[in-house]
Write a structure and sequence with these properties.
Layout lengths: L1 E5 L2 E6 L4 E5 L20 E5 L16 H14 L5 E6 L1 H12 L4 E7 L10 H29 L3 H6 L1 H12 L3 H12 L13 E6 L7 H10 L4 E5 L6 H4 L1 H13 L4
Length: 262
């Protein structure tokens, strides 16, 4: 494994083969993809810590979906990546959609977990309130945000049967830099849906039946708008798909990249 810093973003690179660019969600890091690594053994994994997140939190500028996408595109260019598979979770899926819609020549396929095009109008005030809490309350605010996410974004089954997953999600969110997290929330709250109907590459969309961020009906609607895409719903699963249902994610990723989903 090698780790580079490009435009203040931490980028981990492992393996050989076709590149898969991995973009985590809000409150996540490159570690979101560790549970599914065995399914990606024949690829080169290029795992970003997004601007404002984890090791890439030292950023003072405002963030938007558009400027994060441009940073990823520029970093790919600096790494010599001209075409890649893109793998995303939550906020990362919005960025993947943005890149696929605006730079289609760069994107060979999309495999997206907990996917959304943008927040609902009802959700935006809550995301802005979360940004303010992180910005104004620092570490204390981040602990309260982490507790709320652990309680609300993980399925009841996972919380009961896999307490280590709850601890992992809580730690991931709680350890984020508060100011960087707030800027990431701002980007999410202001996100606009890209023109995904123009996307022509293979697309896999995966969510959980208890995912309140990317509910199954919304994910199926996205699939209906992208010709040839496929959606999958996991039972008793919340929003942190690769942690909650790693084995199922690996199975479906193997099928997708082998062409059995295409």
């Amino acid at each position: 494994m090698t780790t580079q810093f490009i435009d203040n973003m931490a980028v981990e690179i492992t393996g050989e083969g076709e590149p898969i660019v991995c973009l985590h969600g809000l409150g996540g890091s490159s570690n979101n993809w560790t549970p599914v690594e065995p399914a990606l053994a024949n690829f080169q994994l290029v795992r970003f810590d997004l601007p404002g997140s984890a090791r890439s939190s030292s950023i003072s500028a405002e963030l938007s979906i558009e400027n994060i996408a441009e940073r990823i595109i520029l970093a790919c260019s600096k790494l010599g990546i001209t075409r890649a598979h893109f793998l995303g979770h939550s906020l990362g899926t919005i960025i993947c959609f943005q890149i696929a819609a605006t730079r289609p020549q760069l994107v060979k396929s999309l495999a997206l977990f907990g996917p959304l095009l943008c927040p609902t109008e009802a959700a935006r005030p809550n995301i802005r309130a979360r940004a303010d809490k992180a910005r104004n309350e620092g570490v204390k605010g981040m602990q309260e945000i982490a507790d709320a996410i652990t309680a609300g974004a993980i399925s009841a089954t996972t919380r009961r049967e896999q307490p280590a997953i709850s601890a992992l999600v809580r730690e991931s969110v709680m350890r984020q830099d508060a100011q960087g997290y707030a800027r990431s929330c701002d980007a999410l709250a202001n996100a606009k849906a890209p023109a995904v109907e123009t996307i022509e590459c293979p697309v896999l969309l995966v969510t959980g039946d208890q995912d309140g961020v990317a509910p199954p009906q919304a994910v199926r609607a996205i699939a209906d708008s992208i010709p040839g895409s496929r959606s999958v719903v996991y039972a008793q699963c919340g929003h942190w798909t690769t942690f909650e249902r790693a084995h199922d994610c690996m199975r479906d990723l193997k099928d997708f990249y082998s062409g059995r989903f295409q």
